[in-house]
Amino acid sequence: MQQQLARLIRDVPDFPKPGIVFKDVTPLLADAAGLALAVELMANPFRNEHIDVVVGPESRGFIFGTAVATALSAGFIPIRKPGKLPYRTRSIEYALEYGTDQLHIHVDAVQPGMRVLLVDDLLATGGTLAASMRLLGREGLGAEVVGASLLIELEFLNGRAVLGGLRTESVLRY
After folding, report:
1. Confidence band, pLDDT 50/70/90 cuts, at residue 34
2. Residue 71 pLDDT greater than 90, yes or no
């Protein structure tokens, strides 16, 4: 099954900058059977975890997150870049390779103790997921982050190392 999905991921060399091989999921998204399989494989490890909400960071986390939320009969909450959410937000700043960025979530998006699953298309260095965990967890809104479900993990970048032992499931590993 993983090989079927891997064939639907397109490598784009030198994007967004020279030396990077971008894993393009748009061919997978266009394939109905591939998309359905990806969502099932991302949802299955968490079917018995009583997930209240799935949280997906901008932007491909929205695509996979809403589908996984539907498969788990859970709600969905977006984490956005600055200036994109209409209501009051809580934010966190995190380090990028060159500089910093911010993630925002509505202040009332999750309640303390809610069981949250993070979903995104790709785990690379782990910075976005680690910041999302902090924003949602004890130092943020007080939710219980149960795990992370990813379509793709770039293992050579060791992104799991910054997730503090969070249960992390990935469908495809490179």
Report:
1. very high
2. yes
Write out the DSSP string of the chain: -HHHHHTTPEEEET-SSTT-EEEE-HHHHH-HHHHHHHHHHHHGGGTTS--SEEEEETTHHHHHHHHHHHHTT-EEEEEB-TT--SS-EEEEEEEETTEEEEEEEETTSS-TT-EEEEEEEEESSSHHHHHHHHHHSTTTT--EEEEEEEEEE-GGG-GGGGGTT--EEEEEE-
In this predicted structure, what is the pLDDT of residue 98?
73
| Residues with catalytic roles | 60, 97
- Determine if residue 165 is left, alpha or beta; phi over 0 gives left, psi from -120 to 50 gives alpha, anything else beta: left
Q: pTM value?
A: 0.95
CATH number of 49-169: 3.40.50.2020
pLDDT at 97 over 80: no
Best CA proximity match to 171, nearest among 125, 126, 95, 120 = 120
Backbone torsions φ then ψ of 11, nearest 5 degrees: -85, 130
What is residue 1's predicted lDDT score, i.e. its pLDDT? 86
